[in-house]
Each structure stands twice: as C-alpha cells, then as structure tokens.
Amino acid sequence: MAVTEAPVEAGTTSAASTGPGHKRRWTRFILPTYTGAVILYLFVPVLVMVAFGFNDYEGRFNLTWQGFTLRHYRNISDYPALFEALRNSLEIAVLSTIIATILGTLIALALTRYQFRGRSGLNLFVFIPMATPEVVLGVALLAYFVTINFDTGFITIVVAHVMFSISYVVVTVKARTSGFDPSMEEAAQDLGATPWTTFWTVTFPLIFPGIMAAGLLAFVLSLDDYVITEFNSGRVETLPLWIYGISRFGVPAQVNVVGTVIFLIGIFYVLGSLGRARRQDRKSTLTSVKDEILNSTRRPTPKP
Length: 304
Fold this sequence. Notes:
Layout: H1 2-17, H2 20-27, H3 30-52, H4 71-74, H5 80-113, H6 119-131, H7 134-147, H8 154-177, H9 183-190, H10 195-224, H11 227-232, H12 239-246, H13 253-298
C-alpha cells in the first residue's frame, strides 16, 4: 500500500502546483506590471525635462548631464522672449477657454434636454473638429481669414482655439448632463423657483464638475497647440511656437524650468481636486450615517 500511495501523493502535489490557484498567483501581477510600465513610459519624458532644468551645462544644447545647479531657476529671466510667448499663450488659453466653455456648455444642455429640428445633425457636426486633422483645420481657417481680408494675429488664434475646443467641451459636459435627474429641477419649480433660480441653485451646481473638467481640458489644449496656431498666428508668438523656433539653435534650460513649473501646477491642481472629492465623500458618508442613526432612534419601540 505504501508503494502505491506515493505516486498518488506526488501527482497530487504536482497538480496543485500547476492548478488554477498557481496560475492566478502569476496572472494577478500582469495587469499591475503593465499599468506601471505604461505610466513609466508616459512620465519618463517629463522626468527628463524636470531633471535637465537643473543641469549645469555649457554651450547651446542641453543634452548631456554635466552636474546639478540652481542657476537656471535664478536666471529664469535671461530670455524675455520666452516670457512674452508664455504670456501670449496664457492670455489666449484663458480667453478661448472661457468662450469655449460657455458656448460648449449651452450646446451640451440643448442637445441633452431639448428636442429640435437638426439635433442629430448638430451631434454629428460636434465631432467633426475632433476627427479632422489639425493641418486641415489650420489651412481651412487661414483660407477663411484670407478670404475675408482679416489679418492673422491674436484674435485669429483665439477664434481658432475656440473652434477646436468647443467639441471637447460639448462631449465632456454632455457626459455629465446625460445622467442628470430632471426631477430635482421639477421639485424646485414646484416650490416656486423661477427657471433662472432653478438653473443657478440646482442645475449648475450639479453639472459644475463637468464644466470644470471641460474648461481644464480646453485650457490645456489651447496652451499646447502648435499646428493650428502656426497657420493663424501672424506675428504673434506663443510658447510652442517660440520653443520650436529656438530649438534650431539650442533649447535653453529655462524652457525646462517653465515646463516644470507648469507641470507642478497641474499636479497640485489634480491633488487638490482629489482631496476635495475625498472630503466631500467623507462628509456625505458621515451625513448618511448620522441620518441613519437619527432615523433608528425615532422608530417606535414595539410593544410587548
């Protein structure tokens, strides 16, 4: 019996080592490893930009690491044209974001809450700027401005950025308004609120996170755009245009410094948004627990 039982125990152990549990122990690391590799791939260029903002290099090209220094942060004003281009980019981004966010929000509300002739066609036209190559959009806008004899410059850049940003705003806000419960507005109107009061006290606070996300997306797209801006900029120089122009002669470390500052501002904004959302979730959880406790204490005790 002992001789016949030994192979059975060995086979059982071998099957257990190669069974479903053993496979799960290996496969559960695949998705985290893949996710970490993708995140690393996305952030390696950003980390290189941050690191070379501290590079103590000599010459025109900041390509090889030669030592650590803070002089580029102290001498950040050595390139006045850099700050002029950054100021133009920020002004254009702010103006185009405000206009695109207002118009895109109104379009999203109209598409999700009203039925009118041409609604399906408008839904199709909203996606056209997103699917059209930037070269085509830039050339089309330039041809239009030339046809109406309008000089390209600051205003044409704002118009161009509003044109391609509206689509992203509509899609983002529409995703928020599609799940909106209209009974809340009806309840407010039943209590005597006017349509304007209902919008500002009920509708707007509920869709505000979507509006903020759409505005941030439009701002980033405007600040980052190069192709459409190049066709419609005239003599106005934005930050991407300036960086591309000076890259033929060598990119100074101050560009890395400005990029690092912009990146850190975005990181702090994301962290602040996550912290605010976590506080709101905690507050809503405490409120629900408090309501549950109050409801339980108000329940009448059954008579024996």
